[in-house]
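Appendix C: a fully annotated inverse folding record. The material below is reproduced so that readers can follow the format used throughout the book. The structure is listed first as tokens, followed by the designed sequence.
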């Protein structure tokens, strides 16, 4: 593996960063936070058609670009840096991955091209009211090709055109494809701490569904990929919070000199830099492990998610503290990163959850 980016990967990062700087500045993020959908459809179409970002990690035979998870993590890091509001994670990461892991060639050929082009916004519905992220809970059952029950905390569930839902049957947990406009399916947007990421509750009342296949193995593999993908996004957010704090330290003066020249603030920023760079190493290694389909993915996924969660939250909190009074105001962007950090810390399992999983996976 390589810890340095290839020229092509560096150009991808630069292109995505330029695009998001223009299309997803904090002013646009704040506007989209107030809308029902929570994202700008025109920007999503540009991101999909002009840059082809949803297609990156999807194989060419299914309409994708045929790149790897390494490139997808670069994109996710840049999206985390700007708090991009859009269904990329739900559609291009969760839904696309569970389809690829399902082993159902018919389902892949039918649904992945639309996801790759951005024309189909998809999501994965697997959590119940307990708030657990293992996907082993109840809440949704299947019988005679129809789903009854609910799924909660579904990423972009109210925006999706395609819902991939896990449901219980007497034979076990299975994955189903559901048209979001099917009769009996109701999607309700949920109030969230992080207004830049939308969650929904889906109610199924005898909804017609297409069986894809057994879900347990595919879901477990997908959640490991999702944990690493979220760690990449958290890395981008942590770096942005650190950059924001350092920039402010250079321009804010106290006692006739920039506050960044004070040793106490230097130490705090140095500690954050160490944490951010350590997170970067974990994310790079994890993205390589997924790209190579390495056996250690489950271990690396939990390790990276736990560490990235703590790093992002620490960086976001310190950013507020280093800004002083202005950092606590609604007008400043620091609180947006703090809320994203806290919500992301809990999404797919908090650090304690992943450390427990990590201990079990390495036999401690």
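Designed amino acids, in order:
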């Amino acid at each position: 593996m390589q810890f340095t980016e290839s020229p092509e990967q560096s150009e991808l990062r630069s292109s995505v960063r330029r695009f998001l700087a223009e299309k997803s500045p904090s002013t646009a993020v704040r506007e989209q936070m107030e809308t029902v959908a929570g994202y700008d459809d025109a920007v999503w179409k540009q991101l999909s058609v002009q840059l082809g970002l949803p297609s990156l990690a999807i194989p060419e035979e299914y309409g994708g670009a045929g790149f790897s998870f390494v490139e997808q993590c670069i994109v996710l890091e840049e999206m985390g840096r700007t708090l991009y509001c859009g269904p990329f994670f739900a559609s291009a990461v969760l839904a696309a991955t569970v389809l690829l892991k399902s082993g159902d060639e018919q389902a892949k050929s039918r649904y992945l091209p639309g996801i790759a082009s951005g024309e189909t916004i998809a999501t994965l519905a697997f959590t119940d009211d307990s708030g657990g992220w293992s996907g082993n809970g109840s809440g949704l059952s299947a019988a005679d090709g129809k789903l009854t029950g609910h799924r909660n905390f579904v990423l972009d569930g109210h925006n999706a055109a395609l819902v991939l839902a896990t449901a219980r049957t007497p034979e076990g947990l299975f994955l189903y494809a559901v048209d979001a406009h099917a009769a009996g399916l109701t999607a309700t947007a949920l109030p969230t701490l992080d207004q830049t990421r939308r969650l929904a509750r889906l109610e199924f009342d005898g909804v017609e569904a297409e069986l894809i296949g057994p879900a347990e193995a595919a879901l477990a593999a997908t959640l490991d990929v999702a944990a690493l993908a979220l760690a990449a996004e958290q890395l981008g957010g942590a770096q942005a919070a650190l950059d924001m704090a350092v920039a402010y330290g250079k321009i804010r003066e106290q006692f006739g000199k920039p506050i960044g020249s004070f040793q106490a603030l230097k130490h705090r920023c140095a500690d954050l830099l160490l944490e951010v760079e350590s997170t970067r190493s974990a994310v790079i290694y994890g993205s390589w492990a997924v790209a190579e389909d390495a056996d250690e993915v489950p271990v690396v996924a939990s390790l990276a998610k736990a560490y990235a969660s703590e790093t992002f939250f620490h960086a976001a909190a310190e950013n507020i503290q280093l800004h002083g009074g202005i950092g606590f105001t609604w007008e400043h962007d620091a609180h947006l990163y703090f809320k994203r950090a806290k919500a992301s810390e809990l999404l797919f399992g908090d650090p304690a959850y992943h450390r427990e999983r990590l201990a079990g996976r390495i036999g401690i």
